[in-house]
Amino acid sequence: MRGETEKKKIKRRLLELLRGKKVIKTGSFILSSGKKSNYYVDIKNAITDPRILDLIAELIKIEITGAKIDKIAGPALGAVPIATAVSLKTKKPLVIIRKEKKEYGTSKLIEGNIKEGDQVAIVEDVTTTGKSLLRAIKVIEKNGGRVKRVFVIVDREEGAQENLQREGFILEPLFSISQVK
Fold first, then answer.
1. What predicted TM-score, i.e. pTM, was given to this entire model?
2. 76: which DSSP letter?
3. Nearest alpha carbon to residue 36 among 45, 44, 27
4. Please, are residues 64 and 33 in contact by the beta-carbon 8 Å criterion?
5. Which of 7-11, 26-30, 45-49, 106-110 has the lowest mean pLDDT?
6. What are the helix (H) ranges across 65-130?
């Protein structure tokens, strides 16, 4: 397992890049949780930068090395590039969770294959209350997977950790909002 100093170095560089991309926008925003906020965490813009995706994937790879993880999952849309980068870095298959079931073709809610008992690490870009993460976790578990690790790039520190913990999951943020601001 890699040393804490290497992890700290990667996190420091990632934080520099996130700040350089000005991921925190101020103004008046409605979040996916429905809450009003005077700031927005624009991770979607940041994850279009391959250097940022590479560092995120490297950090998550370090965290799951040695753990029995069979699949990497991410809810659409923001987490898909992140989950893809982690999948490529770890050589673990990717699972994409749709926001809603397709009304055409195969009518899937999940893209990728989950077998009964698969151990899954799920990633998300930003979380406020954890509602979308909990929804994604339920989809994975309804399809036979077992969510073992839950990562988020930025936790807005507005209840997600507590809400996930109540359901038996530990949220592992790479950064809290107070670190990014």
1. 0.94
2. T
3. 27
4. no
5. 106-110
6. 79-90
List the structure tokens of 40: 């927005």
Q: For tokens 């699972």, what's the residue?
A: 95
What was the pLDDT predicted at 142? 95
Inter-residue contact 111 to 96 (CB < 8 Å): yes
Pinpoint the alpha helices (H) of the chain. 4-20, 43-46, 50-64, 79-90, 131-142, 160-166, 177-180
73: nearest Cα among 146, 18, 126? 146
- DSSP structure class, residue 103: S
* Helical pair 79-90 and 50-64, crossing angle rounded to 10 deg: 60
Tokens found for residue 74:
């991410």
pLDDT (0 to 100) of residue 4:
79
Cβ(56)–Cβ(14) below 8 Å: yes
Task: Quote the CA–CA distance of 162 and 178 in Å, as a whole number.
Answer: 17
